[in-house]
Amino acid sequence: MTLARRIIPCLDTDGERVVKGVQFVNLRDAGDPAALAARYNAEGADELVVLDIAASRDHRPTFLETIRRVAAELAIPLTAGGGVATVAEGRAILRAGADKLTVNTAALRRPELLTELAAEFGSQAVVLAIDAKRVGHRWETFVRGGRDSADRDAVEWASEGASRGAGEILLTSMDRDGTRSGFDIALTAAISEKVGVPVIASGGANVPADFLDVFIAGRADAALAASIFHDAVQGLGDLKRYLAENGVPVRLTR
Amino acid sequence: MKISLIEYDAGNLPSVERALARQGVACERAATADAVRGAEALILPGVGHFGQLMRTLGARGLIAPLAEAISRGTPLLGICLGLQALFSGSEEAPGDAGLGLYAGQVAALPATAKLPHMGWNQLQRKRASALLEGVPASAYFYFAHSYAVLHQGPGGAAEAAGDAAVATCDHGAEFVAVLEQKNIFAVQFHPEKSAEAGARVLRNFVAHAASLRAAAQSRR
After folding, report:
1. Which comes out higher in pLDDT, residue B42 or B47?
2. Which end of chain A, N or C, is less surrounded by CB atoms within 10 Å?
3. Among residues 10-39 of chain A, which lie with CB inside 8 Å of chain B?
4. Do A75 and B19 touch (CB under 8 A)?
């Protein structure tokens, strides 16, 4: 009886359509987030993340509608985010059907936002997204979709975020994101050992052994990937069976 | 039979509605004392903060009608915070009284494990369970909480629940995951987010609620 390690597909959207790493197969409407959500729900995903990577204010109603359509397909938890800066924006995302929301740039600008969101919705609904990149002897935190350095040590920021009310850390390695060269094990382990909340590792997933590494050596509680699942390079069922055979507790669905 | 979902601001109501709809179960929202009193069966969904839940139920005048309905035999399913609300109180909100159907305090899970307890975990069956009928012993359920009815140690809540605790889970400490007694049913996990296993638990609740109601009517 152990908490299972989670496998989480991620849909990066422009608010309406899935926009990153898309070379879909066997899907009539490949860029539709609801169609992908239904597929992952059926294939045994443990959770789904939907991000609005454009996160422009004009698009917000469209993204909320996307959350509604995705949530309607799921019997598993849904995390959504992108550009959330206020409690009201967080509430809109949860009301649309997400169970948790991610915050990133706005929390670095005003860390009290994490405390406000946790007081309103509970820590279990607040996920701090951190984009980290190796700079010299530390991992630096980046904001605005990885464009600007926030000049903050990512390990310290994760720790502060958790103490301010974040119930989970979604940790993306900018060095590995999109490279398919494996998760950043050292970064994930550094943060997982430092914080008392679950850590979702993201960036670099390619083969099943990468997931095994990030769960064992990286001490991740969950692992997130996008393109390898979208492109059907990696099936969720096969990945979980491989992890189970290698001693990682996972939820097998069939 | 129609299921009434107790409506208050912080609830995960739409998720529960969608999950019931997928099982073909009719449901409506109950936001007033009359709606709670007149319900055929009730679900108290819950995410968020113990104090906020109890204060909101109090402000809407729903605490007494809910307690009355339960004592009259109306089937109730408490979900997550809705399980914790059945007890006298919680360490999470020392000033706010719970429904008090069971004595004892809900307590924080020990920080020896990562908190919140977030994700899919398995159950340990203690006694026969109506909610878990037909659910494989190895099934996983989705949890998201930091407080619980600890099986031992602070709070004394599990002792108060006694034989009503039909299944437990473990995360740093053993805690009550499924509680059943007469018309009272409650789960610490989120059946509405627990895929097939969760759907079965919801169907089981609806089936048992219907048979409890039929039995009560035939006695009249």
Report:
1. B42
2. C
3. none
4. yes
Dmax over Cα atoms in chain A, in whole Å? 47
Domains of chain A with CATH codes: 6-245 (3.20.20.70)
Structural domain boundaries in chain B: 3-219
ipTM score over 0.90, yes or no: yes
Q: Measured between CA atoms, how close is A143 to chain B, in angstroms?
A: 26
Q: Is the peptide bond between B116 and the residue preceding it cis, with omega within 30 degrees of 0?
A: yes
Nearest of B126, B117, B131, B106 to residue B187 by alpha carbon? B131
Which residues, given as ranges, of chain A have pLDDT below 70?
Answer: 1, 20-30, 57, 254
3-class DSSP string for chain B: CCEEEECCCCCCHHHHHHHHHHCCCCEEEECCHHHHHCCCEEEECCCCCHHHHHHHHHHCCCHHHHHHHHHHCCCEEEECHHHHCCEEEECCCCCCCCCCCEEEEEEECCCCCCCCEEEEEECEECCCCCCCCCCCCCCEEEEEECEECECCCCCEHHHHHHHHEEEEEECCCEEEEEEEECCEEEECCCHHHCHHHHHHHHHHHHHHHHHHHHHHHHHC
Q: Which residue has the higher pLDDT, A57 or B59?
A: B59
Half-sphere exposure of A119 (CA within 13 A, CB side): 9
Q: CB within 8 A of A137, min separation 6: which ones?
A: none
Phi then psi for residue A150, to 5 deg, are: -90, 0
How much is the average pLDDT of B203-207? 98
Q: Which helix (H) or strand (E) holds A132?
A: strand A126-135
* 8 A C-beta contact, residue A68 and residue A22: no
- Spatial CA neighbour of A107 closest among A56, A170, A195, A53: A170
CATH classification of B3-219 is 3.20.20.20, yes or no? no
Residue A118 touches partner B, C-beta closer than 8 Å: no
For residue B11, what pLDDT is reported?
59
* Residue A76 contacts B, CB cutoff 8 Å: yes
**Cβ proximity of A134 and A175 under 8 Å:** yes
**pLDDT of B139:** 97
Which residue would you say has higher pLDDT here, B32 or A20? B32
At A75 the three-state DSSP class reads coil
Query: What pLDDT, on a 0 to 100 scale, did the predictor assign at position B10?
Result: 57
pLDDT at A25: 42
Which of A12, A32, A52, A210 is flagged as catalytic? Answer: A12
